[in-house]
Specification:
395 residues, 6-stranded antiparallel sheet, alpha+beta, 10 helices, 5-stranded antiparallel sheet
Length: 395
């Protein structure tokens, strides 16, 4: 199974190789195996005239291209067909040679004839080796530049993600906060951040449609705009309106951003807003229950001059607020059944007295039990006051 999966990965890689580069490698293989066919003519105990030797060498080179192409792309049916065709072709060529070559007794084995044959076939073999080597080296250089450029971009993307979305663990006034984002690739489209301005703070999650460097650029814009935002009495609706305006002016038409944020002030209550995002999960310690807090708004960068609303949350001591992205809720099992919110609400209820980092680990663990991670998974937790207990061994 391991070998087969390796072959499948190889086939997927060759599907990404540009056609020109693939042709360069295949012709390099053709020339190398053509030279191999000419070398075989040197050690053949049967005299083979130069035209026939060249023809056999070209046939060997042509079949080597077919074998290489089918092997690279895991086309087993071509491999199965090629073997009997190659055997039949070689047999037929041998039959034609026996019919058209003079009898063994009539062949000329003079020193001059043998020398001419070796010189001609040797020069052709050297030419084929040189051409094959040149094409293979050119392919390696060309493909190496392409792969290394992609690797450099991936490394840069990872560095961008680490800079934009570090793990958050801090306390502001009477609130403890923890945020983490695990991308599905080197760089994801999820942003988690906490910003403080005087006595006011905002903790939020933004989910950009897409992945990679373009999503990272949008994330940077959202983070910059959110950190530069001045409320001036407009509150969270004012922030969403500003983000919506900025994103519409710089992003592509098919790009949108979902947003979920909580803001508070020292000694004041909490307000929250959603823009096309999953609800805020509110663990109420007094009621020993997890409730969904909703505000119905469109995602950002969808409609110009969209209006946004917010709501309030009565957060008591020991309560936990959780913002999750759909990378956790949409993990699916082998049957395609997605996890959804209910199992994660149950995890939050059972682990609400643990440290926020432990709660985050428990939520992601439950998601991964459902299926493989295919999207960015982000968790933001806010708790008012805290008294910790250690999880049991089962958790």
């Amino acid at each position: 199974m391991a070998k087969r999966s390796g072959w499948e990965r190889s086939a997927k890689y060759w599907e990404t190789v540009p056609r020109r580069a693939s042709a360069m490698l295949l012709f390099g293989i053709f020339f190398l195996f053509t030279s191999f066919g000419l070398v075989l003519s040197f050690v053949n105990h049967t005299w083979v005239y130069v035209p026939w030797a060249v023809f056999l060498a070209l046939v060997a080179g042509a079949f080597s291209m077919i074998w290489a192409f089918a092997g690279f792309r895991r086309m087993t049916w071509i491999l199965v067909i090629t073997l009997p065709v190659q055997v039949a072709t070689t047999t037929f060529i041998g039959y034609l040679m026996r019919r058209n070559v003079p009898a063994y007794q009539q062949m000329e084995f003079s020193r001059e004839a043998v020398t001419d044959k070796l010189v001609i076939e040797g020069l052709l073999a050297m030419f084929s080796i040189l051409m094959g080597y040149t094409l293979v080296v050119a392919f390696i250089r060309k493909e190496g530049l392409r792969v290394f450029a992609a690797t450099a971009e991936v490394k840069l993307a990872a560095e961008v993600h680490q800079a934009l979305v570090p793990v958050i663990s801090q306390k502001l006034h009477q609130y403890e906060m923890y945020g983490v984002s695990i991308p599905s690739g080197q760089i994801g489209g999820d942003l988690v951040d906490v910003a403080e301005q005087g006595t006011q703070w905002i903790a939020y999650v933004a989910d950009v449609a897409g992945h990679g460097v373009p999503a990272g650029m949008i994330m940077a814009m959202v983070k910059s705009a959110a950190r530069m935002w001045q409320s001036n009495g407009a509150g969270l609706p004012g922030l969403l309106s500003e983000l919506n305006r900025v994103l519409l002016s710089v992003s592509a038409p098919n790009v949108f951003v979902t947003f979920a944020g909580i803001t508070g002030t020292e000694g004041g209550g909490l307000r929250f807003t959603l823009a096309g995002h999953l609800p805020v999960l509110h663990y109420c310690k007094r009621l020993q229950a997890v409730e969904e807090r909703w505000v119905r708004n469109l995602p950002l960068a969808v409609v110009p001059d969209a209006r946004f609303d917010d709501g309030c949350i009565d957060c008591e001591e020991g309560d936990v607020l959780a913002i999750l992205t759909d990378g956790l809720t949409e993990t699916a099992d082998a049957g395609g059944r997605e996890l959804g919110l209910e199992p994660l609400k149950e995890v939050l209820l059972q682990s609400a007295d643990y440290s926020l980092e432990q709660i985050s680990v428990a939520l992601r663990k439950r998601s991964l039990e459902q299926g493989k991670q295919v999207d960015d998974q982000t968790v933001l937790l806010v708790r008012r006051g805290f008294s910790l207990r250690r999880p049991t061994q089962n958790n």
